[in-house]
Structures are given as C-alpha cells and as structure tokens.
Amino acid sequence: MSAPSQRSLLVSALAVALGLVLAGLMAILRGVAPGQAYTALLGAGFGCRAPGSCGLITALQFATPLLFTGLSAGVAIRSGLFSLGQAGQMLLGAAAAGWVGARLDGPAWAQLPLSFAAGAAVGALWGGIPGALRAWLGVHEVIVTILLNQVAPLLLGLFGFSRIAATAQLAPLVGGSKLNAGLFLALAAAGLMQLWFNRVGAGYAQRMQAEAPRFARYGGIPARKAMLGGMLISGALAGLGGAVEVLGVHYRLVGAFSGGGGFDGLAVAALGGFHPLGIALAAGLLGGLRVGALNGLQLQLRIPRELGNGMIAVMMLVVSLEALHRWLRRPGRPVPA
C-alpha cells in the first residue's frame, strides 16, 4: 500500500471537519453552545484528567477492534474485492478463541497463542467462503458476505459461552480499564500489512489484481489465488479482532462488542484512505468520538449519543462521494456531461 495521497488526506480532513460542524449544529438545536459541545465531546473522548478518569484509554480500547476490522476491509479492497463480512468474521473468530480459551486442557503458556490462532483461523475460513465463491463461481462477494453476517450468529451455539480461563486472558495495561495488549497486536498487524503489500510477492500480486487487473493477467498473476488469499487474510484480521474482545475485554463470548460490528470496518478503512497508517489514525479518531459522544454529549450535556453515529455518517458520505468522483473520472470511462 503506497502512502496516502495529499488528496486523500485533504478529503479525510474535510470529512472530519463537516462531521464536527454537524455536531455544532445539533448542539445549537438542543440549546447548547457549539464550543461547549466540542469541549465536552473532545475532552471526554481524548482527555485524561486522572488515572481513574481517562477517556483516551477507553478510546484506545474502542479503537482496537475498529483497527482490526478496518484493516480487514482495507485488505479486501486492496485485493480487488469489496467485503462487508467483518461483523460475522469477528463474531465467529471471537467464538472460536473463547472456546479454546475456556476449554483447552494444556500448558498455560500455550493457551493464549492457541486461542488467537483459533480466532484467526475461523475468521479466515469465514472470509475464504465468499472469496472462493467469487473466484471460481463469479458470485459477488458483497451479497455473500452480507448473507454470511446473518448466518454467523446462528452458529454461536456450537461454541458455548463459558468464561475464559485466567491463563488465556489478556491483562489490562492500565488498572481499572479494559485496554490490553491487543492494541499492540493491532498496530503490529497494520505494520505487517504495509510490508505485505509492498515487500512480499504474494501481496504485490493481490494489489496488482485490484489496481491493474489487465496487467496482472498479462503478467501471469493467478487472479483466483489473489482473490482467495486477500479474503483469507481479511477474515483472519477480523477474527483476531474478535479474539481480542473475548480474551481481553469480556473474558467470555458476548453477542455484541465495543466496536467493529456492522460496517464499522469499511468506515474506518475508507476514512483512513485504505492505508494502514491512515486506518490506525481513523480507528483512534472514531473510537474517541464514540466515547466522547457517550460520556461527554449524553452524560454531561444530555445530547443523544446517536449524534456520534451522525458525525461518522457525514464523514463517510464525504469520503464516499470523493471515491465515486474518482471512479467516474478514471481512464477509459467517459465523464458525464
């Protein structure tokens, strides 16, 4: 993945600015001064007044699953596919990691890595299904991933909801919080994805399949292998995100997580320009905005926290319109009069 272009950075900055403008307008409608709303939103989401009252720590906790699912969506896009299956992959990855962490009877030192491996493997399997269907049967991955998101919750009964063994739990990095070493694992995954697409032959093949499919075909790059590989990696990243949630936040399988569900991954990836560094920054931003909307706007100012989702929606609209504009003006496509 090449570095984000200046245009992408400007569009993301504009998207964030318009989202904040929306927050100010909504605050006015609620009888609150915009400056007061911004102070509450940003202070609660990114401030740290005391060790026991640090919104930044909670924001980083929320950002961790967003980073995993953002990387998942970004890898799929960079491989020429459009995956919306992060929610299902994350849920089943969490279920598999939770099952191993709760039931594995083996040496304590092996429980945590094996739990992560199970989460990544099941996530990869769930991501590989739409990849294989697209590569060999031509079934569009958007349809398949959306359908698989609906099937995934039905399979949770196969895993159970037992509590994770203490030897398979991620300890908090800060006392009184749920922030854990999963954050560093997510950042490491972002770095590895940067190296994968720019320094490894298989990653380069996946990127060329997306950016220049005709060149890839003439260069002998196997399109089916590139598609399947991209979706396997995408699913594994989402599965790891689910594993971090059960092993380091909830310590048992739950039906909903603090982030990463729905289409959050795509939102983070798009706002970050589909680049690992951009995705990491976008995950931190959205995590902070959600914490600020809850603890700042709703609890302090009595403004509904749904305003946070409204801000994110405006950001996504701006980024999507810019992406549509680039697609309409791409070489070989006529520009509408």
Structure description:
- This protein has helices at residues 6-29, 34-46, 55-78, 86-103, 108-137, 141-151, 182-199, 201-211, 213-218, 223-250, 264-271, 276-301, 306-328; strands at 48-50, 53-54.
- It is an all-alpha fold.
- It has one domain (6-328): ABC transporter involved in vitamin B12 uptake, BtuC (Orthogonal Bundle), CATH 1.10.3470.
- The longest helix has 30 residues, at 108-137.
- The radius of gyration is 20 Å and the shape is globular.
- Mean pLDDT is 86; it is low at 331-337.
Quick description:
It contains 13 helices and two strands; from the N terminus they run ααββααααααααααα.
List its salient traits.
single chain, 337 residues, mainly alpha, ABC transporter involved in vitamin B12 uptake, BtuC, disordered C terminus
What Rg, in angstroms, do the CA atoms define? 20 Å
Q: Unreliable runs, pLDDT <50, ≥5 residues? A: 331-337
Q: How many helical elements?
A: 13
**What is the CATH topology classification name?**
ABC transporter involved in vitamin B12 uptake, BtuC
> What is the molecular shape?
globular
- By secondary-structure content and strand pairing, the structural class works out as mainly alpha
CATH architecture name: Orthogonal Bundle
State the total count of DSSP E strands: 2
The sequence of SSEs as H and E is HHEEHHHHHHHHHHH
